[in-house]
Amino acid sequence: MGRMGRDEFVASQKLPLTVVLDNIRSLHNVGSVFRTSDAFRVERVLLCGITATPPSAEIHKTALGAEDVVEWQYFADTMQAVEVLRSEGYGIYSIEQVEGSIPLQQFGVEDGARYAVILGNEVKGVQQSVVDASDGSIEIPQFGTKHSLNVSVTAGMVIWEFARKLGWVR
Fold first, then answer.
1. Potential cystine with 169: which of 13, 24, 107, 164 (Cβ 3.0-4.6 Å)?
2. Distance CA 165, CA 94 (A)
3. What pLDDT digit, counting tens, does each position of 41-55 carry?
4. Residue 58 lies in a domain
5. Owning domain of residue 10
6. Could you write out the DSSP letters of every residue in 73-123?
C-alpha cells in the first residue's frame, strides 16, 4: 500500500501546519487528531491545558500508533503555545464561529507560509483570550439545526482543506 515506515515518516517533508488542541476533554478526540495528522503529515500537534498526552491507552485506541510518529509538545496554557508559534513566524487561526470569522472555503493560503490552527474544548470552544490573540478565525459553514461539529471531525475537515490549498492534495 506504499505506507511509510516510522523513520521515513519522521524524516519526511511535513505539511506546514501545526494543530493546537485547547483543553480537549476526550482522549478519543485527541487520538483521532493524531491519526489525521499522521495521514496528512502535519508537522506537529500541540496539546494544551487539560488535553491528555501520550502515552495513553485511550489515545492509542483511536491514534493506532500515530501518537508515536507525529511530533507533539505539551503546554500547560494555550497562550504559551500561541506565544511560541508567533515567535516562530506562524499565522495563527482559531477554528471558531465568531464575528468576522472567515469561511473555511474562502480562507487563502500563501506559498512558503506556516500555519497553526487552534481547536477548542468540546463544550466551550477556543478560549476567548486565545481567539483574541489569533491572527483570525476560520469557521466551517453549517446548515442544519446544530452549529458545532465534533472536534475530530472539524480537525479532519480543516487539515484536509489546508493540505488541498497548500498543494498536497490534487
1. 164
2. 18
3. 999 999 999 999 999
4. yes
5. 6-165
6. EEESSHHHHHHHHHHTT-EEEEE---TTPEEGGG----TT--EEEEEEBTT
Burial 120-156 (b: 16+ CB within 10 A, else e): bbeeebbbeebbebbeebbbbeeeeeeeeeebbebbb
Looking at every residue in the chain, the average pLDDT score rounds to 96
Name residue 56's amino acid: S
Nine-digit cell string for 22: 485547547
Question: Residue 52: its pLDDT value, please?
Answer: 98
Split into its structural domains, the chain has a count of 1
Is residue 17 within 8 A of residue 44, CB to CB? The reply is: no
Distance from C-alpha of 18 to C-alpha of 90, rounded to nearest angstrom: 9
